[in-house]
Design a protein that fits this description.
Keywords: FAD, Flavoprotein, Oxidoreductase, Signal
Helix content: 25-40%
GO molecular function, one term: FAD binding
Low-confidence stretches: 1-6
Protein name: FAD-binding PCMH-type domain-containing protein
Family: Belongs to the oxygen-dependent FAD-linked oxidoreductase family.
Number of helices: 18
Signal peptide: 1-19
Bound molecules: flavin-adenine dinucleotide
CATH architecture of the largest domain: 3-Layer(aba) Sandwich
Radius of gyration: 23 Å
CATH class of the largest domain: Alpha Beta
Length: 505
C-alpha cells in the first residue's frame, strides 16, 4: 500500500496531499478486509455476509428507505446474540474499522444505520426475540424485531407494551430515540418504560443498565443515539391489553381549515384524557393527484364512549370522505393503516420541528409545503405529508414520573405539537430538489415559529434530518451530562471515532 502511494508520488502523478488521501483510503480498505476476515473466522461463515451473497442482499433490501438499501458495506455481521455483538465490537475496534449498527433499518436518511465499504455493518435484525416474564409485568425485546410481530407474540398473554404505531418499524432504534406510541399519553415514551438495557460497551463488555446498576448509563441511553453503547436487549413494562377505538378519517381538502380548528380544540382537551390520542396529516398524495387531509384517532378502552365522544367531538363533526373508525382488540389493525399509507422501498426523508399549540403555524407549514413541493409534484412517486402529532402534557408528566429524560422535555413546556414532514419519491435524480424543498419548509417553519413565539427547541431524533441540531435542542446541561456519561463508558472515544450513523454528541 505504501509503495503504491509512494510510486504515484515519485512519478508525479499525485500531489502530496492527494497521495496522503489515497494512502489513507487504501489503509482503511485493507483494515476493513482484515476486520471482515477475522470476523468470519471467529463468528463463523453464516454470521458474516459479503456483497453478492443472497443473505447479504436480503438484509440490505430490508432497509425501509431506498437510500439506505443502496449502501453496500465491506461485509455485514448478522449478529444472533449479545456475545456476537461483543466479539464483533472487539474485532472491529481492534482493527480500527468504521462500522454502523442497524436494528430494523427504518431511519430514513442514507447512512443512518448503514455504511459504505470499507465500513462494516453490524446487523441486529436476527436478534428479534420476545420473552414475557413469569408475572407478565416485563417483556424482553430483541432490538432487531418489528412491532407487528411483537404485538402478535404478546396477544396470547393479553398484554401490550409502549411500542410503535407501525407494524414494520423497528424495536431498537424506536426505543433508543424515545418512541411515540398510542400508549404515550398515558405512559410516556417507550424509553420511559424501559426497566433494563443490556448493552455492549465500546470495549466489548456486556453490561446491564437500570435504576440500580449503571444508573447514569440507564439515564443516558434515553437520549444516547450512537454514542454510548449497542443495546442488545430492552426489558420493558407490560400493560394489560384493552380494546382500542380508532382509525382514520379522510376529508375533502376544502375542510382543511375546519379540521385544523378541530385539531386545536382536541389537543386542548387532551390533558384531561390520557387515554386518547391522534394526529392530523395534511399533504399531497400521488395516488389522488391532489392535496389530501386525514385524521387518525386512537382511544384505549372501547367502553369509554362518553369520554371519547367528548374528546373527539369537533373532529368527528367534520364530514369525512372515508372512515375506518371502529373498536378492535387486535393490536395491529391501527398500525396496518399506517403501513399501507407509508410503504417501504422508496426514497424518503423525514424531518421535524416541535411547536407550541398554535393553529396559524400548523396551517402555515402546510401551505408553505404546498408551495415548496409545487414544482416537484407530478414527478415519479413524489408525495409529501406534514403530520401534526400532539405531545400531551400527560405524556410529559409520565416521562417525569419515570425519572425524566436527557432530551430536554418537561411538563412545564405544556402541550406541544410534533411535526413530521415525510417526503417520498422514486428517482435518484430528484434527490437534490426534494431535499432542498424539505430544507426550505423546515427553515421557513423555524423562522416563522420563532417570529410567532411558538417554536419549541426540541428536535425528535427519530424524525430529524441528519444535519438538524438534535443535541443542541436538548440544552447545554443535558448535553454536558451526556458527555460525562460518554466519557465514563467510552473514555477513548472509540464509538465517536468509528461508529458512523445516528447523531453524535
Ligand atoms: C413507517 C414508519 C413509521 C414510524 N412510526 C413511528 C411511531 O409511531 N413513533 C415514533 O416515535 N417513531 C416512528 N417512526 C420513526 C422510528 O422511530 C425511527 O425510524 C426508528 O429509528 C426506527 O427504529 P429501527 O430499529 O428501525 O431503526 P434503525 O434504522 O435500525 O436505527 C436507527 C438509529 O438507531 C441506531 N441503532 C439501532 N439499533 C440500535 C441498537 N440496538 N443500539 C444502539 N443503536 C442502535 C442506528 O445506528 C441508527 O442510527 C416511524 C418510522 C417509519 C419509517
Amino acid at each position: 500500500m505504501r509503495s503504491y502511494a509512494t510510486s504515484l508520488l515519485l512519478f508525479g502523478l499525485l500531489a502530496p496531499s492527494r497521495a496522503a488521501t489515497v494512502a489513507h483510503d487504501l489503509r482503511e480498505e485493507i483494515a476493513a478486509r482484515d476486520c471482515c476476515q477475522t470476523l468470519q473466522s471467529q463468528l463463523g461463515p453464516t454470521a458474516v455476509l459479503f456483497p453478492g451473497s443472497a443473505g447479504f442482499q436480503q438484509l440490505v433490501n430490508s432497509y425501509y428507505s431506498a437510500q439506505e438499501s443502496e449502501i453496500i458495506s465491506q461485509c455485514r455481521v448478522s449478529a444472533h446474540s449479545a456475545q456476537d455483538v461483543s466479539d464483533a465490537i472487539k474485532i472491529i475496534t481492534k482493527g480500527g474499522c468504521k462500522f454502523s449498527v442497524r436494528s430494523a433499518g427504518h431511519m430514513t436518511w442514507a447512512g443512518a444505520a448503514n455504511i459504505q465499504a470499507p465500513g462494516v455493518a453490524i446487523d441486529l435484525k436476527q436478534m428479534n426475540g420476545v420473552n414475557v416474564s413469569a408475572d407478565k409485568k416485563v417483556v424482553s425485546l430483541g432490538p432487531g424485531g418489528s412491532w407487528g410481530p411483537v404485538y402478535d407474540a404478546l396477544d396470547p398473554f393479553n398484554i401490550t407494551v409502549v411500542g410503535g404505531r407501525s407494524n414494520t418499524v423497528g424495536v431498537g432504534g424506536f426505543i433508543l430515540g424515545g418512541g411515540f406510541s398510542n400508549l404515550s399519553p398515558a405512559h410516556g415514551f417507550a424509553s420511559d418504560n424501559v426497566v433494563n438495557y443490556e448493552v455492549v460497551l465500546a470495549d466489548g463488555r456486556i453490561v446491564n443498565a437500570n435504576k440500580t446498576s449503571n444508573p447514569d448509563l440507564f439515564h443516558g441511553l434515553k437520549g444516547g443515539s450512537t454514542n454510548l453503547g449497542i443495546i442488545t436487549r430492552y426489558d420493558v413494562n407490560a400493560f394489560p391489553l384493552t380494546p382500542k377505538w380508532g382509525g382514520s378519517r379522510g376529508y375533502n381538502v376544502s375542510q382543511g381549515p375546519a379540521i385544523f380548528d378541530a385539531m386545536i380544540k382536541f389537543i386542548k382537551k387532551l390533558p384531561q384524557e390520557p387515554l386518547g390520542g391522534g394526529s392530523v396529516v395534511w399533504g399531497y398524495s400521488e395516488d389522488l393527484k391532489n392535496d389530501t387531509i386525514f385524521g387518525s384517532f386512537a382511544y384505549l378502552g372501547a367502553d369509554a364512549t362518553e369520554s371519547k365522544a367528548q374528546l373527539f367531538s369537533e373532529m368527528l363533526d367534520v364530514p369525512p370522505t372515508f372512515d375506518t373508525i371502529r373498536t378492535n382488540t387486535d393490536q395491529q389493525w391501527l398500525d396496518s393503516e399506517v403501513d399501507v399509507a407509508f410503504p417501504g422501498g422508496l426514497r424518503r426523508i423525514f424531518s421535524t420541528l416541535t411547536l407550541k399549540v398554535d393553529r396559524e403555524i400548523a396551517e402555515g407549514i402546510y401551505r408553505k409545503s404546498h408551495d415548496a413541493f409545487a414544482g416537484l409534484v407530478g414527478k415519479p412517486g413524489v408525495s409529501w405529508t406534514a403530520s401534526f402529532q400532539p405531545i400531551s402534557i400527560t405524556h410529559l408528566q409520565a416521562t417525569e414520573r419515570a425519572g425524566g429524560t436527557p432530551q430536554g422535555l418537561s411538563p412545564k413546556d405544556g402541550d406541544l405539537i410534533l411535526l413530521n414532514l415525510n417526503t417520498v419519491w422514486v428517482e435518484e435524480s430528484d434527490d437534490a430538489a426534494m431535499q432542498a424543498a424539505v430544507r426550505d419548509v423546515i427553515n421557513w417553519g423555524t423562522k416563522e415559529a420563532k417570529r410567532r413565539n411558538v417554536l419549541h427547541p426540541w428536535l425528535y431524533i427519530n424524525y430529524a434530518l441528519p444535519d438538524q441540531k438534535v443535541y443542541e435542542s436538548y440544552g447545554k446541561a443535558n448535553v454536558d451530562a451526556l458527555l460525562k456519561i460518554k466519557n465514563k463508558f467510552d473514555p477513548k472515544n472509540t464509538f465517536g471515532k468509528l461508529w458512523k450513523g445516528g447523531f453524535k454528541l
